[in-house]
Amino acid sequence: MKRLDSKIGWLGCLLAVFLFGSVEMMAQPANDDCDGTVTVTALSADSTVFSASGDGTGATDGLGAGAAHVWEAFTIEECATIYISFCNSENPPSNVFISVTD
After folding, report:
1. Domain count of the chain?
2. In the sheet that 68-75 helps form, which strands lie side by side, from edge to edge?
3. Cα–Cα dist 68/64, whole Å
4. From CA 72, how far away is CA 90, in angstroms rounded?
5. pLDDT one digit per residue (tens) for the chain, 102 residues
6. Distance CA 29, CA 23 (A)
7. 3-state percent helix, strand, coil for the chain, nearest multiple of 5
8. Residue-range definition of the domain harbouring residue 94
9. 3-class SS at 36?
10. How far apart are CA 2 and CA 15, in angstroms?
């Protein structure tokens, strides 16, 4: 479990990087590029859990980072502590990069 303390008004753009032994040639997921980021429902102080799903199948390495990637994003409405967990994931990613912007 990773801990990320946040401040009011920032946008978290989660870049989940999934390393594959071989990337199958098939349609890429819509969130294969940051321009196609899947936005999760805005979080509020009353929110305790939100989830994003998908396994990155068909994702490509559009950034040249050496690994396939997909993007998820969320916005918080006030100061919060955010925990990111891959519990209950059948095949959790071996590398995860997190970009926090305001």
Report:
1. 1
2. 38-39, 68-75, 11-18, 95-101
3. 9
4. 18
5. 444 444 333 333 333 333 333 334 456 666 656 666 666 665 555 656 666 666 677 777 777 777 777 777 777 777 777 777 777 677 666 777 777 776
6. 13
7. 5, 35, 65
8. 2-53+60-101
9. helix
10. 14
